[in-house]
Amino acid sequence: MPHIRIFLLLLFGLNCCANSVISQSNCNRDPKIDKLVKKALISFRESNFEQSLKISRTALNAATLSKDFCLISRSYNIIGANYNELSDIDKAIFFYKKSLYYANKTSNDSLKSNLYNNLGNMYCFEKKQFDEGIRYYKKSVAYSLKINDLKEVYFTNVNITWAYFDIENYNQGYLFLKYINSTKNKYSDGSTEVIVDMLNAVYLSHKNKNTAANTFFLSAIEAGKRSGEKTDLSNVYLEYSKFLDKINKHKEAYQALVNHNKISAEVYNEKKLKKASIAGIGLELDEYKRQIDKIESEKVEQSQSLKKSRIIVILFILISFILLFLIVTLIKNIRFKKKHNLELLKAKEIAEEASLLKTQFISTISHELRTPLYGVVGITNMLLEEHKEISRSQHLSSLKFSARYLLSLVNDILQINKIEENKIVLENLTFNIADEITVIKNSLSFLSQKNNNRISIDIDPEIPEYLIGDKLRLSQILMNLVSNALKFTKDGQVEIIVKLSRVEGKLNFLHFLIKDNGIGIAVVDQSKIFEKFVQVGRKESDYQGTGLGLSIVKRLLGLFGSTITLDSDLGKGTSFSFEIGFEHDLVKTKNIIDEIEVDLTSNEVYRILVVEDNLINQLVTKKIIEKNNYICKVVDDGFGALKILEDEEFDLILMDINMPLMNGFETTKRIRLLGIDTPIVALTAFDKDEITDEAISSGMNDIIIKPFEPVKLFKIINYLIKEKSAV
Ligand code: ADP
């Protein structure tokens, strides 16, 4: 009758539980409920199950209301124990598990240990699910060890031993029995003494140590009688009867069995009575109610979460709308942008067209201006040379000055336009800085005399003799700065200082300083003067300038990757400075010099044909050529050229481009078609870059821009003729 054993085992658990209830204080306890739980426990220990269950019920309801998991767990534990005592095993397991569920929500390890022990009892002895039961016991031991409760370990080991003996696994059971015997004196009490003696007796009987077994059985019976624990005694009598039967003491065995049956019947009847009396307690009803309450509260939670999810749905819809709105706006924006981009593209095209028109306009205007200016400057020069008597004429020098001014204006506008259109690429020419600066000084001597200024040059001797770079652009920068210095200084001094500031590999960085002690520039004007057409604080009569000089200087320096620094005090003077790196490479220098070397020593008399429709220009060009002792013939147009070439041979042809009836390109093409390979040089007021391609494809050999330096013209003539005869 193993179910009787359970009663005893359960008491162990509850004993421990009772201890821990008192010792462990990590439950967040309501003192009133705590008191109720203790009362229920006392009633249980007095076997007043009805009373114990009633009080437990009240405690459980109160603990549930105050959500005190520890007290809920303890209430369920006592209820489980009561059902355990009343042999209602399923209910006992149900309430123990409930208790364990709440215990696991707390940190009360003692409580957990008790519950695992009690469930171990249920599964080992009642359900006969031994493995499951042992699993519970082991957990119980683990929790007890965790809190160092060795008494609880002792009790659980008694249970484990009994469980192993029950399935006749004496070897395993003996391991635990040994531990129990070694600690018995420390932890044993009245209730365990009976069982421990009985377990020893059972083991010794198994080992056929009958005398010793008999002694333990008798000791257990004595202890059972002393403690008044009927259940324990009933168990001992049963095991004793089995033992006596085994050793063939049948009569004594029978007597022991009678004793067992008698006590069992008493216990059974008592229980039956108690069971009947608690039938009306309605714990199950309570449990159902609690479950309904739980369902209700879940319902509330659900409706709350429903509300929440409704809010979420609303939010979702709202966000969807916003997103939709955003997408629509985005699409609209993209469409608008597309449209706008198209407009922008159109605007860009228009702007590009406008820029092209501007370029064309500037080039046409400058061409149209250059052509007559060529005549004006040329004729003025001729007059001055041929009629020395009028060379002092104020009118003539005014004419010359105005023509030159106009020419420089046209050239400046053209140059600025070219820089802005990114059409200028710096060239690599070899030069000597001292020579370049001397040329500038000489060409500005007229200006320096006019304002009674002295020009001093200071060139660092460390600077290499030959440098490579765009000397023409550099000269242009220096010309502008030095002529400004001379223009805005009277009876003063203009210094041109060039220093070698640093050398990086082949690059020699030259620092240029153009300094005057003239009128200076006011601070407010200093940032403006680099803008186009800005001239500050000057009267018309003071001087003539285009207001483009510094603007060109700044842009040209930009091409060199340099910037200009201005330092000026009104009334004290002005200095402009900048730095440019030039290459110093002797091999390269030699190559460059070799390339441009031209033999000007020729004493040949060449025959030159000039094809030009403008009568003044015809006159000027013819004069220049004849002055060099060459023979010059002039025709008015392309047809004239073709005709004269049928009869005569020339060494070189100078061809105007812009002519009526047939332009210079067309004429050149036709000349080439006739098989005439005489060098043809375009003599034009067009900008060189604009016509280079067409000139080459028509068969021309070179281009000279009007107005030109006669020296340059003869250099080209000589070079081309020499080149041709070399072939
Ligand atoms: P321009 O000399 O043709 O007027 P620039 O662009 O060269 O045009 O110069 C702009 C203005 O800067 C000049 O009109 C003058 O007022 C001022 N400026 C330039 N250089 C000097 C200088 N060395 N001393 C005083 N003023 C100067």
Automatic annotation (TrEMBL):
Catalytic reaction equation(s): ATP + protein L-histidine = ADP + protein N-phospho-L-histidine
InterPro entries: CheY-like_superfamily, HATPase_C_sf, HATPase_dom, His_kinase_dom, HisK_dim/P_dom, HisK_dim/P_sf, Sig_transdc_His_kin-like_C, Sig_transdc_resp-reg_receiver
Protein name: histidine kinase
Cross-referenced SMART domains: HATPase_c, HisKA, REC
Organism phylogeny: Bacteria, Pseudomonadati, Bacteroidota, Flavobacteriia, Flavobacteriales
Domain Histidine kinase: 364-584
Keyword Transmembrane on entry: yes
Stretches of the chain forming a coiled coil according to its record: 278-305
